[in-house]
Design a protein that fits this description.
Length: 83
């Protein structure tokens, strides 16, 4: 389990252990996966969640890096209709 932040009823980001999980537009998630510090989020082993990436905790230790990822997740969550 972990902690999740929602905006308008839509997930923006969350914490899984020491790592950050971020929900992005599917196209943005594909681009983000090219970064060394990211990996595909899987709800269950072998079942990737579309548009979700996990960012290694060490990569978001600095405030600017954390803000970049949290802002990306928040922007996507706010672009969706409220639930």
């Amino acid at each position: 389990g972990g902690i999740t932040w929602m905006l308008g009823g839509n997930m923006a980001c969350g914490v899984l252990g020491d790592d950050l999980c971020v929900r992005l537009m599917p196209e943005d998630a594909e681009r983000a996966l090219s970064e060394a510090e990211t990996r595909q989020f899987e709800m269950m082993a072998g079942r990737p969640a579309k548009g979700m990436v996990v960012v290694d905790g060490a990569a978001v230790a600095e405030e600017d890096a954390l803000a970049r990822w949290v802002s990306a997740g928040a922007d996507y969550a706010l672009s969706l209709p409220p639930k």
